[in-house]
Amino acid sequence: MFGIVSNCAKERLFSIRFQLFYSTAAATFHANTLVEFLVNSLGFSNKEAISTSSKVTRSTLRNYEPHLLLDLFDKMGMNKAQIKTLVSSSPELLFSHIDKNLKPKIKVLQELGLSGSDLVTFINKSDFLTRGLHTTIKPNLDYLREYLGSYDAVARVVKKEPRLLSNNLPKVIPPNILLLQNLGFSQMDIETVFYRRPRYLLNNPEWLERVVNRAEKNFRIPRESRMFLHAIEALVSLDESKLERKLDIFRSFGWSDSDICAMVRKLPYCLTSSEAKIRSTLKFFMNELGYEPSYLAFRPTLLKLSLEKRVMPRNEILKFLKENQLVKGKLNLYTVVMCPESKFLEKYVLPFREKMPEVYDLYMKTRS
């Protein structure tokens, strides 16, 4: 009898120890377990998982289930690849307290009107979830709300630039606004900056002032010009060395500084194209078609259109029509490439499809 009781007691003691061990193992997420979790649940390679787990400090490995985070993100509409990207950059999120930490932050975004894919995109493009709700996030939102006038406006701006909320906006932005005001920018101009390219208000004022001076003095764009703000927007993303490299490409094709200024005054965004894009575009228009710098400088839109998807296919159609005398009068490439797609098909392709089906086939082939 005593033997039977003793065995029952042993079994019960084993069961208690097993339950304690199981609950402790589930609650305490050690580094080796983290590697296995990343590999098995999120599709990390072993190397990626080891690298990511190394970013997590021992103090971060607290008693929270990372599966709860996956459930939360899954309900928000994140797919596995998006969760993997987020966890790769901020693995400590796996050990955040869901109810006390993450849900209140997500609720703030939802109150701004962000939901579905907008919400997912915002979270994946920022370190929002790792920021303090009351130390960073709410002060930033309050500042934007006070300046822009409504939460709808705030939502529009933060969707445009999610990383805004990672900065100390009440400290960083006012000096730039003051600078722009002193330079003669209106309140409407500054709000336009917020909506179009808010990131450049995060630069230090000295850098922004140099950009403004460059637009005005180097490229001779008057402040009252409707292109002035666009020039600031284009130039603020270029450091001096990168800008000079791009200008040197134009010069290597025979452009004078006057030609370059004329182009920038008409379309500053020509400077935002990659160096490879600038080089290949100039090579096509100047070396292959024989256009002069002055012609392109006053028609800068040609330099921004896609060569592969628009310019070259339409140029082939134009050549075909001219060679087969299917059009009367003068017809130039600028006119042809500036047509909306529907108008181009209606005027230069479809009328000749029955008579010469190769016209349509040629166009579709060159666009693919």
UniProtKB/TrEMBL annotation:
Any one Gene Ontology molecular-function term assigned to this protein's record: nucleic acid binding
Organism of derivation: Nicotiana attenuata
Alphabetical keyword list: Transcription, Transcription regulation, Transcription termination, Transit peptide
Protein name as annotated: Transcription termination factor mterf8, chloroplastic
Keyword Magnesium recorded: no
InterPro entries, sorted: MTERF, MTERF_sf
Coiled coil residues, start to end: none
Keyword Lyase among record annotations: no
Family the entry assigns: Belongs to the mTERF family.
